[in-house]
Amino acid sequence: MITVGILTISDSSYRGEREDLSGPLIREMVVERLGAKVELEAVVPDEFDIIKGTLMVWSDEVGLDLILTTGGTGFGPRDVTPEATRVVIEREAPGLAEAMRAKGLEI
């Protein structure tokens, strides 16, 4: 069974000012459509070192098969999810991002 972590990056959700809606939706889809087991879920602020550190622990120490991130991808100065992720990953899979964007346009 695939083990999954879902990391929501959002200052406002981290501070409790806004409910995290995307994390639970992703959890539902992962369980229903992939039959995967969600091992870890967290909401962290838009902080480069926290995002990077969480991704490293989840991949290297916990050994999750798949880590999905949501949020922190806008153009604001604090939106650093892509940059923090690139430091951790060994290989990019741009086709996955393109497929997600294409599917999102259908909504």
Automatic annotation (TrEMBL):
Q: Which organism is it from?
A: marine sediment metagenome
Q: Which GO terms describe its biological process?
A: Mo-molybdopterin cofactor biosynthetic process
Alphabetical keyword list: Molybdenum cofactor biosynthesis
SUPFAM superfamilies recorded? Molybdenum cofactor biosynthesis proteins
Q: Which Pfam families match?
A: MoCF_biosynth
Q: What is this protein called?
A: MoaB/Mog domain-containing protein
Q: In which pathway does it act?
A: Cofactor biosynthesis; molybdopterin biosynthesis
Domain MoaB/Mog: from-to ranges: 5-107
Coiled-coil residues = none
Q: Which residues form the signal peptide?
A: none
